Amino acid sequence: MPSQPRTRRRPAPTAGRWARVRLFAMDVDGVLTDGTVHISSEGSEAKAFSILDGHGLRQLAREGVAVAWISGRASGATTSRARELGIPHVIQGPVDKLASLRELAGRLGLGAKECAYMGDDEIDAGAMRWAGIAVAPPGAMPVALAAAHLVTRRPGGHGAVREVCELLLAARAKDGGGL
User: Fold this and answer.
1) What strands, in cross-sheet order, belong to the sheet with 89-92?
2) With contact defined as beta carbons under 8 Å apart, do 45 and 154 qualify?
3) How many C-beta neighbours within 10 Å does residue 59 have?
């Protein structure tokens, strides 16, 4: 039997680190959804997104936290949901999510410590290791779990993103809106 990959997480972020976050970026499939893609016989695609997550992301935007979706897979369903929520930064199709995150942070004038990233798979691990705060849903692959500072209680597509939004909002409220 092959040995299991290590899933020991990084130390949990302090409230001050949460308060410094100005960009919350995340993967889509497996984070904002449960990772399932429904393809009809005609080829149309459907995904389920959590209303809880959407509301949390809107709250963050109202508080001045930039939100970005970085998906390795282009999807019309993702584009539609992002448009509905007013997500300003939607990047679809990159294989190198770290490069995409660093480029976006640079355009926004932000460093790694001002970024939080949530991912669930190997393709997300580099971005997770670079960001000041890395989060994974509980069903994430071991490499993403190992890169995470925090693993949410709720699974991807079922309020996991909302948990992170609540932590960011609480830290900002305690800190008077961030540093």
Assistant:
1) 89-92, 66-71, 23-26, 115-118, 133-136, 150-151
2) no
3) 15
pLDDT for 94 equals 73
Helices (H), the chain: 15-20, 51-62, 76-85, 97-107, 122-130, 142-147, 160-174
Burial class (CB in 10 A: 0-12, 13-18, 19+), 86: exposed
99: Cβ contacts below 8 Å, ≥ 6 apart? none
- Average pLDDT along the chain: 92
The stretch 32-46 carries a mean pLDDT of 92
Dihedral of the alpha carbons of 132, 138, 139, 142, in degrees to the nearest 10: 60
Q: What is the pLDDT of residue 3?
A: 43
- The yes-or-no verdict on residue 5 having pLDDT over 80 is no
pLDDT at 38 over 60: yes
Hey, what are 75's tokens? 């999807």
Domains of the chain: 18-174 (3.40.50.1000)
Q: Do residues 117 and 127 lie in contact, with contact meaning Cβ atoms separated by under 8 Å?
A: yes
Tell me the two tokens of residue 102: 């660093």
Strand-pair category, 45-46 with 23-26: unpaired
